[in-house]
Structure formats: structure tokens, C-alpha cells
């Protein structure tokens, strides 16, 4: 069951990135794709506490920083939990805690700002894949389990800080002037940066998600 759930979320993450990139076909054949919740605007309420370590960029900016995108998870009812509680006849009306199980940023620039951020969120007995791009948010829900540990978003090193700390090793590919794309995945205490060059070379750098120390690479 856990393996099947993990595969499901990997597929959803791929689909989310594909949707933003404008892919013309799905990464698999046969069967209907999961139907996402209709897109809606994120709220503009007060930011979550403990997440003000770097300036918040405008939500309509071409790229998004992780800090402000996490804050958007706590402004408004992105996951429709209020509607679920209202539909439940149980007298318990407590909003479930949002637990981050995985984070993925697509196409980061040299300062750690991404074209889109996708989160796997556990809230109550539901897992949701939430994708932010510009001022849009798309949500896909599924029952199940995911074995990854909960990510404490107040303790992870933000991408901008990670890039500043490891500028030399991360920029190694770009010194030749070869265009690159960067994707960042955060889970189980690791921040994995995948750098793909137009020459076909792919670099994988694995950092400690809290300290930003480089643990391994395929260089």
C-alpha cells in the first residue's frame, strides 16, 4: 500500500510539472489522468509565523520563492478543509494540521526562485498534491499513506540561502555558458538539486536540508 501510494504521488508530481511546462502528452499511456480540483486564487491574508527569513516576492512574479509560497498554504482555505468539516456531521470542527511530506521546485534560477512549487500535504486522513505557479494554485487529493517524514518548514534552509552557501559547486556547470535547468526536491532531511545542461549532462547534488552541507554528488 505504501509503495503504491508513493508511486501515485510521484506520478502526480510529474503531472503537475508537466502541466506547468505545457506538455502535449502524459508521461504514460492508457487510462484517465487524475482530475485536479479546479484552479483558484490563493488568499492574501497574514503570513504564517516563523517564515520571514527573506523578503516576500509578489505572487504574480514570474518566479516564486519558497518562503512566500509556503505562506500561501496558510492563507485562505487552499485545501478546502472548511467545506469538508461543514459536510461532516461529527461535532469535532477542528481544522486538521497541514503536514508537509515533500516539496519540489521546478526550473529554479541562480537565486533559488522557481517557476513552480509543488507540495505533498497530509491533512487529517487526506493527502493532497498542491502546485503553485504564479498566482494560481491547483490541488489534487487522494487517500493513502506516504512514508516520508514530516518536513519542518521553519528549519529547512531556504533555496536562496542554499544557493548562496554552495554557489561555487552549483555554478560549476554554468561557468562554460551552457544553459541549464535546475529542479529541487526536499524530503526526508535531504535537498536534492538536479541540474540538466543542454549538452545532455545531468548533475545531482544532495544537500542536508537543514544545514545546506553538500552530502554527495555524481560529479
Using the alpha-carbon principal axes, give the shape.
elongated
Beta-strand portion reads: 25-35%
Number of domains: 1
Cα(first) to Cα(last) distance is: 35 Å
Major β-sheet, in short? 9 strands, antiparallel
Radius of gyration: 18 Å
Series of secondary-structure elements, N-terminal to C-terminal: HEHHEEEEHHEEEE
**What topology, given as strand order, has the largest sheet?**
1-5-4-3-2-6-7-8-9
Number of strands: 9
Key traits:
219 residues, alpha+beta, 21% helix, 29% strand, elongated, disordered N terminus
Question: What can you tell me about this protein's structure?
Answer:
This protein has one domain. It contains 5 helices and 9 strands, in the order H-E-H-H-E-E-E-E-H-H-E-E-E-E. The protein has helices spanning 2-21, 66-73, 81-87, 159-165, 167-170; strands at residues 37-41, 99-106, 116-123, 126-133, 136-142, 180-187, 190-197, 202-208, 214-217. It has a 9-stranded antiparallel sheet, with helices on one face. A hairpin with a 5-residue loop joins strand 8 and strand 9 (214-217). It is elongated and about 55 Å long.
Spell out the blueprint of helices and strands.
Blueprint: H1 2-21, E1 37-41, H2 66-73, H3 81-87, E2 99-106, E3 116-123, E4 126-133, E5 136-142, H4 159-165, H5 167-170, E6 180-187, E7 190-197, E8 202-208, E9 214-217
Antiparallel strand pairs: 1-5, 2-3, 2-6, 3-4, 4-5, 6-7, 7-8, 8-9
Short structural summary:
With 219 residues, this protein is α+β, with helices and mostly antiparallel strands.
